[in-house]
Every structure is written in C-alpha cells, then in structure tokens.
Amino acid sequence: MKIAITGSRGFIGSHLKRKLEPEHEIIEWDKDIGKDIKDFRIGEAQLVIHLAAIADVRRSIQYPEEYWENNVVPTTEIQRQCNNLNIPLLFASSSCVHNWWLSPYGTTKKVNEETAYPGREQIALRFTTVYGEGARESMLIGKLARNEAKYLTDHIRDFIHVDDVVNAIVTIMDKTENLHEYPQAPLKSSYNIGTGRGVKVSDLGEIFDLNLPIRDGNSCEAVNNTADNQDLLDLGWKPTMKVEDYLALKIIPH
Questions:
Q1: What stretch of H or E contains 201?
Q2: In 53-92, where does DSSP find H-type helix?
Q3: In the structure, what pLDDT confidence band is assigned to residue 182 with cuts at 50, 70 and 90?
Q4: Partners of residue 246 on adjacent β-strands
Q5: What is the DSSP string of 1-42?
Q6: In what order do the strands lie in the sheet with 47-50?
Q7: Is the pTM of this model over 0.85?
Q8: What is the pLDDT of residues 65-85, one digit of tens each?
C-alpha cells in the first residue's frame, strides 16, 4: 500500500516509517526534505497518516498564532483532500484535547478533531506523553536519563514508549485498511493512545534517588493525562514498556 506520512522525519514519524518499510511504499512529507505540509497533495497515496505539527504546550502560550498556522490550517486542508478523494486519514491529536482550553496547543488539537469529517475514515490519535529515542531534548524522560532535569512536579503522566505508539498506529491502520471489505470494523473517530497507567512525576525521582526539588507544574498543563485506552485495547493492542524499566536501562548514574 502507498502511505503518505507527514512529519516522516520527526520523532514518531521516523519510527513509524521504519516500521512500515519495506512492506509499504512510504510517501514522505517533511520540511527537512523540502516538502512542507502546507503544500500537501495526496497524489497516489491510499492512506494518509498526518503527524506533522508543532508540539510543546508551554511554548504555545508565547506563540499562539504560529501554532494555529502550523497545526490547524494545514490539517484542515489535508482533511478536506482526504474526504474529497475518499482516502482514510489518521491524524495526530493529543491528550490535551481533554483540557483543550488550558493552552493554544490543546486548542489546535481540539479544532483538528472538530474539523475532521464524520464517519470512520478520519481518526484522531490522542497521544499521551511519548518518550524514547529521538524525542525532543526538552522532554522529561530524556532529561532524566541524561541527568539534566532540574526539578520534578506532582503531575501524573501516562508515559508511553514510541514503539508502543507506533504499534498502536499500525493496529488502527490495519483495521482502517479493511473498512471497505468489513464495514462493521469496530473503529472509533478517536483513540486515546496511552498505557492507561498514570505515574506521578515526583515518584520517578524517588525510585531513582535523584534528589530533585518538587515544584508546582505549569498551569497550562493537565494535572493528570492518564488515558482511558479501553477502545484501543479492544482492537488487540497492548503496551509493552513501562517507563521505570526504560529509565532503569537508560539513566546515567550520578
């Protein structure tokens, strides 16, 4: 199958691309290769997986217009093209939609879901807190592994490894492929992609004896983003990695 992946050189996109090749032909869309999503065209793609976006909840407070221009405008156009050509679309959303009013980033993801065309052909992927190789350097788990974190909070986070995220996308993708052959396939318009297990951030410091101060979290971030992932579990997917096990392998001793 020919699959267009936007953000194909990004964190999740690059892992997904490696997972799908060589079984599928990947059509890349990424600014790093000179293919901006603002110029997106479906072409010969039979499925679109739209992952390109500007992330970072806290940064969105400073630059709300930039987030709108990059997260909302191109996504709306991609949704329109897919609808017109009857091409299935999986697109990146976020657990932030559950508290979308807290940040411009969350607002953009809420809008993405609202502008999706109804039915089971356009599916929102609500990622929780994704970690693993290739994540942004500002992400907490990487900073903990490198001993670069300066403080922790009492936020509860559903940390999910990027490999588990990729497997979740592939699970949903496989069901989407069979929609026309099996129109009663149990697909929803959105899936919460998380482990379903919340971990208090400050507890990670205690487990690994990091001796970091505890501070209040930013008001633009949800207190708890633990996913209700039953719909995803019902498709046959399950997480394989616990964040504590990952850190036990990766963390650099003091």
A1: helix 201-207
A2: 57-62, 64-67, 73-85
A3: very low
A4: none
A5: -EEEEETTTSHHHHHHHHHHTTTSEEEEE-GGGT--GGG---
A6: 25-29, 2-6, 47-50, 89-94, 122-127, 190-193
A7: yes
A8: 999 999 999 999 999 999 999
Beta-carbon count within 10 A of 218 CB: 13
Which residue in the block uniquely carries the two structure tokens 């394989």?
240
Instruction: Kindly state the tokens that stand for 41.
Output: 């065209």
pLDDT digits (tens, 9 = 90+) for 213-244: 999 988 999 999 999 999 999 999 999 999 99
Euclidean distance between CA atoms 115 and 104, whole angstroms: 16
Q: Name which of 138, 137, 254, 159 is nearest 204 in CA terms.
A: 159
Kindly give the pairing relationship between strand 159-161 and strand 129-131. Answer: parallel
Residue 202 token pair: 């400050």
Q: Number of folded domains in the chain?
A: 1
Q: Taking the CB of residue 146, how many other CB atoms lie within 10 A of it?
A: 12
If we measure between CA atoms, which residue out of 50, 35, 39 comes closest to residue 4? 50
**Number of DSSP helices (H) and strands (E) in the chain, helices first:** 10, 10
Whole-number Cα distances in Å, 53 to 25, 33, 85, 166, 167: 22, 15, 23, 17, 20
pLDDT in tens, 93-120: 999 999 999 999 999 999 999 999 987 6
What is the span of the domain harbouring residue 115?
Answer: 2-250
Pairing of strands 199-200, 156-157: antiparallel
List the CATH number of the domain containing 205: 3.40.50.720
